[in-house]
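User: For a benchmark we're assembling, each entry needs the component sequences followed by a predicted structure for the full assembly. Here are entry 17's components. Please fill in the structure.
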Amino acid sequence: MVESVPAELRAGGPVLDAEGIRRTIRRLAHEIVERNAGIGGLVLIGIQTRGVTLATRLANLIAEFEGARPTLGTLDITLHRDDLASRGLRSTPRPSALPDVEGRSVVLVDDVLYTGRTVRAALDTINDFGRPRHVRLAVLIDRGHRELPIRADIVGKNIPTTRGDQVQVLLDEEDGRDAVVVIPGGERP
Amino acid sequence: MTTETPHSTGATEAEPARPLAPPADPLVAEPAEGPWRHRHVLDLDDFDADEIETVLDLADRMQEVLERRIARVPALRGHTIVNLFYEPSTRTRASFELAGKVLGADVLSVSASTSSVQKGESLIDTVRTLRAMGAGILVMRHPSAGAPYLAARHTDAAIVNAGDGAHAHPTQGLVDLYTMRKHFGDLEGKRVVMIGDIAHSRVARSDLWGLSTLGADVVVCGPPTLLPLGLAAAQRPPDAAGALPPVEIETDIDRAIDGAHVVMALRLQSERQQGGLLPSLHEYALHYQVTSARLARAHPEHLLMHPGPKNEGVEIAREVAAGDHSIIEQQVANGVAVRMALLYLLALGRDADGAGPAP
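Assistant: Structure for entry 17:
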């Protein structure tokens, strides 16, 4: 398995730099609108925390080229996690603010898709708010290793990783710069 | 035999016996990650400002959950919470039941009056029996001060004090703080006046601790017979060991209400009074009822609060209870969110080695 991971990743350099992220997000914005055939009924829901930042950027971009901004929401999934007992208080619920989702075209937005458990929790949380017409998933990075039958509809970049690797998406609004970094397994602090 | 604790009020005859000093082990957890280190919620006198803010911030999250179309989350699924009430209750009991249910826990209520307590079963046996059935969290209300501390020493379940005699009602204190914070943001320097049967009010005591910790200016007001004996005498310089938080004591209601940001009316706790403390209810109302006329002296944006149940015409005038400044119903509504936050923190905040009740 280790041999399939490219050398550049093993070195820990950025897999995606600021320019790369900018272009990728622009493409994602277009794909979202294309898949939805416009922005009618579109609701972008960012999963806390970096999914929210990404969803906001996507909404702003879409507003630029479509002339209208899609509805935006934020979602915290802590209370629906399947591992609360072992995590204890390490995860603190953050705010959720959802617009009406009943009958709408929801696009869930997150930075990294990994085991799929976060998305499962997000789907369950959305159910408590209403019944969308459909839910699509847009992620910046898909790093593989799904533990549930969940897939992304719109993907920025596929990065093969091993389970020990750590994938970090850094965003200017939160981290001061844009970069996607992979820390190879075994070098975790 | 009571031991002097760091939080002793030094008060004497008019107050019920101080709770026994909590021993080091069962009541203080190993410091957990983040600002929450409580195995139990027994009183607000050992909550620092960070911990109070943690509870209130989490209550905001829980409030949002309550506004969802389906206000249910599975966070406490598999946990069993038992309300063990030796005294009547509407608000506290119902809001704990709802709080547990919204979080997905199983909740049952045991009322002492219809339980084997009537057959002579002791508190400790009752607590251990419920724990043996799988109750991880016990919410207790009892007429004796210190009862939840005793329970905490005899079980590894988490104990929440829902009122012990006239000693403490920490969850109501937190609900009141939450309500005030929602309106004012920061409570530092805000003038909060509590009017009524202070001596017998566990809510007043818990509010006093919490408000002082958050930096509010607290005023207690009532007839001298209903103010805790020794309250003034027990106030020492803030750095002295066992010092009570600074409190302004006022027997004149108009001077007390002057400029107040929050006016809290408290019920006469006749069930706790020995008798002979007041000439008549009419006399009391004449001098201490919270009326619109008296509230004219309060801050223009003041809040009118009452922990309930209220006796209109005694400690509070009807038009005031229903008036524009009254947030009595909001206090009740906020009760579920705050209690959800506490149950969540207790259930998930056990130390890393898993000691404590498994769900």
